[in-house]
Amino acid sequence: MIPSKVFKNPTILKILDYYKNLWALSYTSAIAHWDLETYMPVKGSMAHGQALGRLATIRQKMFLDKVFVNLLLKADAQGGLSDQERGIIRILNRELKFYEKLPSKFIEDFENLTNTATIIWREAKEKNDFNIFEKPLVKIFDMNRQMAEYLGYKDTPYDALLDQYEEGLTSNKVGPFFDEIYKPLKDLLNKITKSIKYQIQNQRVRPLQTVKYDKAKMAKLNVKVLKTFWPEYGKNFRLDVSSHPFTTSFGNNDTRITTWYHKTDFGRSLLAVIHEFGHALYDMQSADELEMTPIAGGSSLVIHESQSRFWENHVGRSREFIEKFLPDMQRTVHGSQLTVDSVYAYFNKVSAGTLRVEADEVTYHFHIMLRFEIEKGLIERKIKSSELRDYWNAKTKEYLGLEPKTDSEGILQDIHWSGGSVGYFPTYSLGTFLSAQWAEAIKVGPSKWLQKHIHQFGSTYTLEDLLRKNKIKFDPTVNLKYLQDKYSKIYDF
Amino acid sequence: MIPSKVFKNPTILKILDYYKNLWALSYTSAIAHWDLETYMPVKGSMAHGQALGRLATIRQKMFLDKVFVNLLLKADAQGGLSDQERGIIRILNRELKFYEKLPSKFIEDFENLTNTATIIWREAKEKNDFNIFEKPLVKIFDMNRQMAEYLGYKDTPYDALLDQYEEGLTSNKVGPFFDEIYKPLKDLLNKITKSIKYQIQNQRVRPLQTVKYDKAKMAKLNVKVLKTFWPEYGKNFRLDVSSHPFTTSFGNNDTRITTWYHKTDFGRSLLAVIHEFGHALYDMQSADELEMTPIAGGSSLVIHESQSRFWENHVGRSREFIEKFLPDMQRTVHGSQLTVDSVYAYFNKVSAGTLRVEADEVTYHFHIMLRFEIEKGLIERKIKSSELRDYWNAKTKEYLGLEPKTDSEGILQDIHWSGGSVGYFPTYSLGTFLSAQWAEAIKVGPSKWLQKHIHQFGSTYTLEDLLRKNKIKFDPTVNLKYLQDKYSKIYDF
């Protein structure tokens, strides 16, 4: 079972054999999670939570087994390892550090807190009342701060959290990045909103997003697009429905994505499919030899998001894509006269709104900056929880020019904090900016560029190493230029 | 989490806390298995097999942990336990015996053999060639014989295997049971086939089973039936599609059944749903306090099958059921003039055939007798594998009056042996016979009879103890009389 071509070091082989147990636990946990989001009867979630909680503690215990830890120490001290072998040690040492530094009691408490908090968050969002969610939110930030203390940091506890989601990411990298893009994006947004085209578009009574579609027909269109992108669709890859789109991979031969169906706004369902396909492709094209090892599947969150955003923005929102599937779109959307121009305008409409998930390519990053500031402020105890809602609303006004009418449209809109994730959001913006650089690279590269340069390596390399390997330096101006070029054409300025 | 009303003994409480880890492993394995049969992309099965194999060895290792085994020994020596507490010890000791007596190498080898054998069996069945499957089949019987040696037995190694599926079942109980029912069933079948009604029915050109139906409409009918039986349908219970109907339960609040759709023979899809509902109801009505303990869910296979067969035969095949759902059936089946009489005749048609899964209430047991004889003969080395196909065909001729035309209709028809199950089949007949006794008991009992007398106990009791508790003695004449009464009316003799 252990891949023999890539892995030859005897210590590594022993590590991989033991790791297969940990992989098996992750595999079934992931299946159970996919099930929870897709087919599980509502009342089944309690047993799900109980089982997954136990599995997490079993996994921690097995990970900290002396035999395994000693193998890791031994491998770490060895020279002459291949890139993949070093990748394995790097990934496992990161996890080991996490398990060693966090008491298992803390892990279990955190798991229980976030399980409950997600349910409370759902209730608060439904009832449109932040007060219901305030207490669990404060606890989640308290525990995240505690986690940062356990894990250790140099400048700010927030850096320990950023590092959880993107290895080596710090506030000193995120802050200047946002500073660099803020003004150009603001200027671009101003130019767009002042353009005549924008003014006309905003007066239209029935833009395409309000036209109804039939769910079954929409699903058919989604599958047709996926089959075009990936002819193996159905054999090692499938599409399901969930309350929020996501991708999950159980290996190269079983990767699944989901989308949603709102019965209007067909681009929302379709672009979600294309976005998730970008994630899926990354997972499916990780080299077969890496299967069931710690470096199988996508590397970091930034690279992952750069894949999904590449497909969503640079493929799905392109004129070429719309041309190819226009007849199918026309068959899917009720009584509408879709043209390439009208769909292109609809897919690329810029408009500041209060909801992150509905934001366009230009305004999206303001949503992320807002969250970055709040997360950092809360972790550094510079914002009080009692000021939170007002702070959110004021910052939305500052960045986007409008205020959320309700908590559900404001501070309650995202699921991340309820699930315990603090420090996750910046990867969305970084990934999106990086995707423009892949788009540039692909233009001059061979076909299968992504597979050859990124996908096959799984998580062998960190983001920085992968960029270095591909001789690409992270450069926000590439995406800024792409946005400027694209939207000056669309809005005619 | 640990139920406090039923379980008070401190040792039992410790056992249950540890057991929750084992339960969590079983829970996620079961979800993964359901996924395999319903939604998994075909190419995902390799990773599935690898993960489940590892989980099985993790579970064995955790089960054999000295701390846990000592707790079991301690509890075993204690008096004053409740029935439920004794049930827990009984079930866990059975599993402990299995894990202790079988080397883990044997368990892993057996797992690998049956994983491969199932794939080979599918190929053999498709290609209609027993020769392809002969070798793995011989190995499976060899390993089953070896398993019997490990586990120990008194009279014949086959008894050790029977006991795996039905605690305490032996050849000395199964043999006389089949002897008792053989002649009466043969006589009944003779009377039926000689009746004028049978002769007329066999001449009809278009019996109902050949009429086509629409899959989506059929699924709607199935769900309507389930919602009538179980108004909570959708909240803690759902219906899916698989290549062979089955039931799986992840707890009282998440039980799932599947059915199949052949687009003709609508009773086959509907009666499968009703059959599986019988299994599901048993699992869903196990007392809440037993959740996540070793005695949650149905008790033995015989009792389980007695539940499914009760619903299938005594409810689904009844005139009352057909009357209630006739308009829905009419809407579902294309261009047919369904009447209560025609559907009743179709649901209860007796006709000897070569396929077990399509057999009626009268001829079904001949299929089981045949398998019982072959299994016992192979385990006791009285039948050679080279004679197997001829033996199967000759016995089919003897019992059912006709010979399989192909291996797929004959010795290759069942999945059980390829999955390693030897000694399973007799529970089907025993359960079916027992179901007639429940039907009798329910007639004079209160509503919710099944919940009160059987379901709530989970697997607290063995079959024998449960019968004793309900003051019912297993009596094959009850089902024989039911069949005689029913079919003499249908076939007018």
Report on this model:
Chains A, B: Its cofactor is Zn(2+). Chains A, B: It holds the Pfam family Peptidase_M32. Chains A, B: Keywords: Carboxypeptidase, Hydrolase, Metal-binding, Metalloprotease, Protease, Zinc. Chains A, B: This is Metal-dependent carboxypeptidase. The structure is a homodimer of 493-residue chains. Chain A has helices at residues 10-38, 45-63, 66-76, 83-101, 104-127, 130-151, 157-165, 171-194, 196-203, 215-229, 266-284, 301-316, 319-332, 340-347, 364-379, 388-400, 426-444, 449-453, 463-469, 476-491, and strands at 237-241, 247-249, 255-259. The first copy, chain A, is mainly alpha-helical and 493 residues long. Chain A folds into 2 domains: 10-101; 171-491, Neurolysin, domain 3. In chain A, strands 1-3-2 form a 3-stranded mixed sheet, with helices on both faces. In chain A, α2 runs antiparallel to α5 (104-127), α10 packs parallel to α11 and α13 packs across α14. The longest helix of chain A is centred in the first third of the chain and has 29 residues, at 10-38. The mean pLDDT of chain A is 94.
Overall geometry of chain A comes to globular
* Largest binding interface between chains: A-B, 44 and 44 residues
> Oligomeric state of the chains?
homodimer
Percentage of residues in DSSP E strands of chain A? under 5%
Mean pLDDT of chain A: 94
Total number of domains of chain A: 2
Gyration radius of chain A (Cα, Å) is 23 Å
Helical content band of chain A: 55-70%
Unreliable stretches of chain A? none
Structural class designation of chain A: mainly alpha
CATH class label of the largest domain in chain A: Mainly Alpha
Q: Within the largest sheet of chain A, what's the order of strands?
A: 1-3-2
Catalytic activity (chains A, B): Release of a C-terminal amino acid with broad specificity, except for -Pro
Cofactor (chains A, B): Zn(2+)
Active site (chains A, B): 276
Keywords (chains A, B): Carboxypeptidase, Hydrolase, Metal-binding, Metalloprotease, Protease, Zinc
